[in-house]
Amino acid sequence: xxxxxxxxxxxxxxxxxxxxxxxxxxxxxxxxxxxxxxxxxxxxxxxxxxxxxxxxxxxxxxxxxxxxxxxxxxxxxxxxxxxxxxxxxxxxxxxxxxxxxxxxxxxxxxxxxxxxxxxxxxxxxxxxxxxxxxxxxxxxxxxxxxxxxxxxxxxxxxxxxxxxxxxxxxxxxxxxxxxxxxxxxxxxxxxxxxxxxxxxxxxxxxxxxxxxxx
Amino acid sequence: xxxxxxxxxxxxxxxxxxxxxxxxxxxxxxxxxxxxxxxxxxxxxxxxxxxxxxxxxxxxxxxxxxxxxxxxxxxxxxxxxxxxxxxxxxxxxxxxxxxxxxxxxxxxxxxxxxxxxxxxxxxxxxxxxxxxxxxxxxxxxxxxxxxxxxxxxxxxxxxxxxxxxxxxxxxxxxxxxxxxxxxxxxxxxxxxxxxxxxxxxxxxxxxxxxxxxxxxxxxxxxxxxxxxxxxxxxxxxxxxxxxxxxxxxxxxxxxxxxxxxxxxxxxxxxxxxxxxxxxxxxxxxxxxxxxxxxxxxxxxxxxxxxxxxxxxxxxxxxxxxxxxxxxxxxxxxxxxxxxxxxxxxxxxxxxxxxxxxxxxxxxxxxxxxxxxxxxxxxxxxxxxxxxxxxxxxxxxxxxxxxxxxxxxxxxxxx
Amino acid sequence: xxxxxxxxxxxxxxxxxxxxxxxxxxxxxxxxxxxxxxxxxxxxxxxxxxxxxxxxxxxxxxxxxxxxxxxxxxxxxxxxxxxxxxxxxxxxxxxxxxxxxxxxxxxxxxxxxxxxxxxxxxxxxxxxxxxxxxxxxxxxxxxxxxxxxxxxxxxxxxxxxxxxxxxxxxxxxxx
Lengths: 214, 414, 175
Description:
The complex is a heterotrimer. Chain A is mostly helical.
């Protein structure tokens, strides 16, 4: 009805009219006008209550993650559900020690996740090596992916894991991270981390098919 | 390919087929809900697995090298992180081996206390394994039930030792502390509750027609194959071999207690799941007997005299009842542990942990750090079953076989 | 205690009957019985022990004696199916030179030793001849080039210095 009339008139360069029919311009104007105030807060609220962690267990704190999403310390009431595919999740919980071989997997999983995405580092091993300080096979998680929240403890109690999800929700809603990403299409507060070297040791060179397991 | 012609021993009851040109590789990697922290490289021909190669080492935290640079007592929390659910069982052979070198034996009450925590950990570990098996098969109810019931026993362990998962309870010469006064009542409630629950588990899991059609006759391991490959734990007992370290070579208080070892003959995945549930039932009986013994006998020494006489005064006052045990004192261990020098020698100790037989070899040359500690965990000895048992099955049987073995990758990577 | 001593003496007699003159020495350590043989009689002794009932390997250990310039490799073996022998653990050991270490592999006789020999290979650099599948198991090639568990490898204080590992990788392609 209205749409067809305006289309007949062309793009409608008159001042003060709403441009219906040209979706790109309409979207730009909607972002600027609508995403402040209540709708912006609603976008942040929706993101905060659907932080789904991906199913990547890095080390022994994984037992406390299993207990934290179990029936006694139920974390699903905060909206988070462990989900299998990295393409459909927005949280990665690096629990425990990250070894050099596992760091490749963490980085590949992180790259596959869509924005806006978050990372929580759990345990004493993520802070400074923990009880495995001075070992030749571990890296720190902040050298591999950018991290928002750290949880100390060895292993941290499941109540601490729940507390960290709540802190992440507060961070998201106070700083409006989700709305800012929609407006600017990048996360301003996080820098892009490029790992120092190819961590697995296979420097991106072509691997000979006969020696592929070495 | 080279694998089949360069002399892999031909085991009875197992065929290796030649690699045809229609195969392709599937990497079932660490970020996968059906794989744990390891990668399995599978060559499939259509839907049948032809060659399976476990690619482990994702959680290798170099415990053997770190142990050579730390004092003897500091290695106990280090080795616990191998299988953090089963903490008493994992560090017990280390403590036993060093006690053999030192020449001190723990007093009788300490042996019963260690047995009690070992059995509580065994039940918690089997429940964890069953819960993760449910996740692999898509049975979320089993995951929720197993983790909920596990909290009962983790709570008991927390009353005994002060921490949920990392107990550090056995030390050289005995244990760290005694049980509180209201412990036996809570333990009896827990065992009564769990016995009723095990019948419910049989209803939803083991006698469930969906699960039975998925697990029956899948991954059959004959008695000879299991012995050749050196499999341990409930997997071995589900294939007909009657071997348990608690029976064949009794340690701690198991020589005085009577219990049964469930042995099944079929050797498929369903038998392995049954073996775990039946073992839990036996562990509940052992806990009842041990708690009765502990209640009857007086609270006397739980640590060997050599270490107890150097204890700080606060420690002794609390445990002889001079000061009320209100839980508000921070008690330190004896400083003798920190500067312990073990006489030179070599020792070997073995223990039946939740997943199988755990083995330690400790060598000392008289200093205050070990010279060499060698650990072989039960999951490391089971990983060879991937290579020899899985080929010939369909790809969707991989989670069924994998989950029934109850692997725990941090245990084998150390 | 007397019964135990009698049983121990009889297991030593059993070993002497089975292995005859392969043995260099028998030593009773705490928890296992250490039998030292020479490297060229190792496969022969293993076959004889397997025929007399010891059917699996519990652990394969290598110890680095840097002062004497030797490696000592021990196979701890025991039995599942034989009731009497399952109470004892025998440690079949051999001593080899530290430079250019080569040992015959026992995976053809005991399949349970296959993965553990791979692990000893990558941590110490000891090559097992005739192993069906000798390659790296736990470590990446960069770290394995350093042969981590030898006594002369000392870990640097900061463990995330990857540049130094690459120097070793490039100069030392040993696998």
